[in-house]
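Tokens in:
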């Protein structure tokens, strides 16, 4: 088997302990000044050190402790599971941990590991204390998942050679390394796999303040001049998601170049986002289509994700991984045992009037001794 090159090599210059490095970010005004100098190369928007990570403070603090302990004991990091909607920083944290430790990082994903033999090279070539990042780990086939249980517990793989009576199992010892799993659906992970991760970190949507900081830092990296109000405008219209904030920043930058003098002012940011049909709440066309479908086709619900996805002609995974988490978080919709239901905020958002309270459309239990008229 040929030696697999690390996808990203280690980097341990500037090796201060993670805890000492601190998980704090510079004040907003200092960042605006630094950004105006525009002295960072383009296209490198992903933070590489823990001190550059903005927001997710509690997660960053816990990771700083795990890093410091791993360094002090010269051990690998514990296996870590990151969960949360797409674009919130799961890959970023894996990348930061590899940089902080100065170890090799290999990246793969659940759907790419179709058979046991697909995962084998990643295991046998993993260096001492290196990191194997498995994205979309909830999509690992069952057989592969079971194959990595002994890896995660005892750093060994059990390989069966031969068939029938002649079959024998060989235990292959591995180097001690760390598996970092990322998932948008932690609920789909089997309990045995979930339990083999020693740390479970849930990433939440970012507040406007943190997202504004990210926008300012990244405007610096993209070498574009950005006003403070415009940073807040972009942040409040990015669905609490750094990846979207980056995408919207790039669009606003293009708009500023093509339609203004290149500077992102509040007026420019607003015009650019309006043109992209991102509304004041940060919702895009797909979000509004979801709310309109739920309200106009399904009378506000409750209805199931499959029915909504089929009506909208989009994949149910896209709906539940990308569209719904933010709508739930902002309370445009609620989840009930019988499906999704629009709230009065959703009606406001699409410019419709919420119907008066209809007890049959809700899931509150019927008064005692009185059965529902009919069950859906
Ligand atoms: P995920 O793996 O959860 O889908 P990523 O880690 O790829 O998300 O994040 C998407 C982008 O958002 C990154 O390239 C980075 O620029 C930005 N980003 C994410 N989290 C942070 C953070 N905490 N601080 C600064 N930028 C971030």
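Residues out:
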């Amino acid at each position: 088997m040929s030696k697999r090159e690390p996808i990203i090599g280690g980097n341990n210059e500037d090796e201060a302990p993670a805890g000492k490095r601190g998980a704090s970010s510079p004040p907003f005004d200092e960042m605006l000044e630094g950004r105006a100098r525009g002295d960072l190369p383009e296209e490198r928007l992903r933070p590489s050190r823990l001190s550059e990570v903005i927001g997710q403070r509690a997660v960053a603090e816990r990771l700083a402790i795990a890093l410091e302990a791993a360094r002090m004991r010269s051990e690998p990091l514990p296996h870590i599971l990151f969960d949360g909607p797409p674009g919130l920083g799961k890959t970023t944290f894996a990348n930061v941990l590899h940089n902080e430790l100065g170890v090799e990082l290999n990246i793969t994903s659940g759907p790419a590991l179709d058979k046991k033999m697909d995962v084998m090279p990643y295991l046998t070539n993993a260096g001492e204390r290196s990191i194997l990042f498995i994205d979309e780990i909830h999509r690992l086939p069952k057989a592969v998942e079971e194959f990595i249980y002994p890896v995660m517990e005892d750093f060994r793989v059990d390989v069966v050679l031969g068939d029938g009576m002649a079959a024998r199992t060989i235990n292959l010892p591995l180097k001690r390394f760390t598996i970092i799993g990322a998932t948008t659906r932690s609920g789909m992970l089997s309990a045995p796999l979930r339990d083999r991760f020693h740390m479970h970190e849930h990433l939440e949507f970012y507040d406007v303040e943190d997202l504004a900081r990210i926008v300012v830092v990244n405007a610096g990296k993209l070498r574009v001049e950005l006003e403070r109000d415009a940073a807040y405008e972009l942040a409040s219209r990015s669905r609490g998601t750094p990846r979207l904030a980056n995408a919207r920043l790039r669009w606003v930058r293009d708009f500023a170049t093509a339609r203004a003098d290149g500077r992102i002012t509040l007026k420019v940011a607003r015009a650019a986002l309006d043109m992209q049909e991102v509304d004041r709440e940060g919702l895009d066309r797909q979000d509004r289509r979801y709310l309109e479908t739920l309200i106009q086709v399904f009378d506000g619900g409750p209805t199931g994700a499959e029915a909504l996805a089929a009506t909208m002609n989009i994949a149910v995974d896209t709906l539940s991984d990308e569209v719904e988490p933010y709508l739930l978080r902002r309370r445009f919709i609620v989840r009930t045992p019988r499906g999704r239901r629009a709230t009065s905020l959703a009606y406001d958002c699409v410019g419709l009037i919420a119907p008066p309270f209809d007890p049959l459309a809700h899931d509150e239990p019927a008064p005692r001794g009185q059965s529902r008229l009919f069950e859906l």
